[in-house]
Amino acid sequence: MRTNGLTGRVLLGAGLLVLAACGAGDPAQEKGGGAKDRPKAVGFVVLQPTSVPVTVELAGRTVAFQSSEVRPQVTGVIQRRLFEEGQIVRQGQALYQIDPSLYRAAANEARAGVASAQATFEAAKVRADRFRPLAAAEAVSKQDYTDALATQRQAKAAIDVNRAQLDTARTNLRFTTVPAPITGRIGRSLFTVGALVSTTQADPLATIQQLDPMFVDIQRSAADLLALRRALASGGVTPARATVRLKLEDGSDYGLTGTVEFSEVVVDQATGTVNLRARFPNPQGLLLPGMFVRAVFAQAVQQNAFLVPQAAVQRDPKGSATLFVVGKDNKAEQRTIDASRTVGADWVVTKGLNPGDRIITQGLADLKPGGPIAPVPASAPQPVKAPSPEELEKMKAQGKGGGGR
Predict the structure, then answer these.
(1) pTM, whole model, 2 decimals?
(2) DSSP string, 43-69
(3) Which of 140, 173, 259, 325 has the most Cβ atoms closer than 10 angstroms to its Cβ?
(4) Coil, strand or helix: which one is 14?
(5) CA nearest 98: which of 197, 170, 180?
(6) What is the mean pLDDT of each run of 10 residues along the chain (405 residues)?
């Protein structure tokens, strides 16, 4: 039984030696001769510059692609409603029928006025034609011929006036059938059959909205937009494709992507923001006007940036970001970097690093600037070696002493 206990202690001691070789070092060993100066094993990753999109997530609200109010252009009583509420209507489709009796009578009256003016004109023309040779032969006075020509011209003008009145009457008669101004989904009817409607009423008859595609209005801080424009001017970043993704009110992602249509050139004085408008396809009608959404899009691309694992970055008491790199002669070198945002599990570093730097990501505990290190690639498997004869003798002695106690 005593031999088994010694064997277990020997194996445990071997395991501790292996961990000491791969980890941060054993305090007990540091007390031994020469262990204090032993290089600390660390894992590193090699970084190269890359292009990183500058993404933002902003609040937005959906807006119908087209919205039109159906309003009467003549006064009258609604005789029929010719659509089903909530259905898709086509441009030009008849929606309401207003009583056309008065407008049909006005059109007939205007048509009769045109005929009367036409007859008057023909009589005046015949009279003027007869006076022409008589005036040349001085059988009638030239004044009589001049008056006959004037009467003819007045009769011609009367025809034009009556034709214009006929066009107006026909237009009003056509307006008694109220058409759909656009194609889209029509809402509820605010007026029923038998209601008197007029061109001066405040409320529309109904509202039509086109929901495919849909607009999303996004508000962006004017200060952020100014900073972006300065970054673009400096050459540090380049414009990105205006592709936008949406997060719905329940937190789920809207499957289809949209594009930014335009940005307004006026800053809202009340909020200090600039409105951007994005366009999204909406074939299934999932987006409805007035919904609150979150718009995620890349406004620019950061050039020559480094993606550093978050585990490698630390903050000093002043809040500055620092990290360790493998320096000359395998010494730990601490650097101050510019890391203002994250992408996934990495910090985006724009200053303080060079291509090919070896960033220490493992074994950072108790690591000091200028300390000796034994760098290996991060997460590389460490070889397990058997303890030396001296270490075995030492562990046996410790085991005997423990058994005696």
Answers:
(1) 0.60
(2) EEEE---EEEEEEEEEEEEEEEEEEEE
(3) 325
(4) helix
(5) 197
(6) 39 37 43 59 88 81 93 95 93 95 94 93 89 82 86 92 94 95 93 94 94 89 72 59 83 88 76 84 90 84 84 87 89 88 85 89 87 82 62 70 46
